[in-house]
Design goal:
The complex is a heterodimer of chains A (103) and B (157). Helices cover 63% and strands 0% of the residues of chain A. With 103 residues, chain A is mainly α. In chain B, 64% of the residues lie in helices and 3% in strands. Chain B has helices at 2-15, 19-30, 34-48, 55-62, 64-81, 83-98, 100-111, 132-137; strands spanning 124-125, 143-144. The chains are: A mainly alpha (103), B mainly alpha (157).
């Protein structure tokens, strides 16, 4: 005996709904995904000079972490992608600003 | 009648509270417990200053035992504190592990002897003060291959 279960075509945790907030979330996911592909997958792709200059300041890195927290509170999908993007940013900058003699 | 008058007084007093203070009180009511906030602050500091963590801790985190501990801690934090804290914990752990090999290389560069004669060169212990170039480059040699400099007089060639 089989029970017929109605399957939703799209997982609920991935649905953005049709509201304005949902559209913004989907747009942010798209933008962050593009940034991850552009900057995080290729080491030779250089970051902008402002991002490189700001990395040495601790308050900037604190703001970066707070951006992760705020985006995660707003939307889990955006938060996870922003965390991935900023992890690669912090890791790359930590390596790239090191003197060549220390690499 | 007195009760209704008292309620009206309380309601009028509550309506007199500035909206900024009301918003602040609502924000304070929504905040996590102090222990979670302290843990969150420690996580933020770990992420911000991950590049200055000593190489010993990084090397341990990159070992088999350290990785098992790290994954276990991340799982425990997600189960007990929520996934936002777990996300920050995972990020801090990955940033610590990422620089492990490089930190070990840097530490080895400044503490270990880089020259290896391979058995074909007669090595001699360093005796005396460091050379100027060694001080400038931050080298601490323990052995040298040649301790004598052969010079010849200039002549016509």
């Amino acid at each position: 005996m089989y029970r017929i279960v109605e399957m939703t075509p799209w997982p609920t945790f991935l649905s953005f709904h049709g509201t304005l907030d949902g559209i913004f979330r989907a747009a942010m996911v798209l933008v962050v995904a593009v940034l991850i592909v552009k900057y995080s997958t290729v080491l030779e792709e250089e970051y902008s000079k402002k991002l490189a200059d700001l990395y040495i300041y601790p308050w900037w890195r604190i703001l970066v972490v707070l951006l992760i927290v705020s985006s995660a509170v707003w939307c889990p999908r955006v938060g996870i992608l922003v965390a991935v993007l900023l992890f690669f940013y912090l890791s790359d900058m930590n390596m790239l600003i090191s003197p060549m003699t220390e690499l | 009648m007195k009760q209704q008058a008292g309620k009206q007084v309380i309601a009028s007093q509550a309506s007199q509270v500035p909206p900024l203070i009301l918003a602040f009180e609502q924000l304070m009511a929504r905040l996590d417990s102090p222990s979670k906030l302290i843990y969150g602050v420690l996580l933020v500091l770990t992420i911000v200053y991950s590049s200055v963590i000593p190489a010993d801790y990084r090397t341990f985190a990159d070992s088999l035992l350290g990785r098992v501990f790290g994954i276990g801690i991340v799982y425990g934090v997600i189960q007990s504190m929520g996934w936002v804290y777990g996300l920050l914990t995972a990020m801090a752990f990955l940033l610590v592990v990422t620089g492990a090999s490089r930190a070990a290389v840097i530490e080895g560069f400044f503490t270990r002897e880089g020259f290896d004669g391979g058995g074909t060169v007669s090595e001699k212990r360093v005796n005396g003060k460091r050379w100027f170039v060694e001080k400038v480059l931050g080298e601490h040699p323990k052995k040298i291959a040649v301790d004598r400099v052969t010079t010849t007089a200039p002549g016509d060639s």
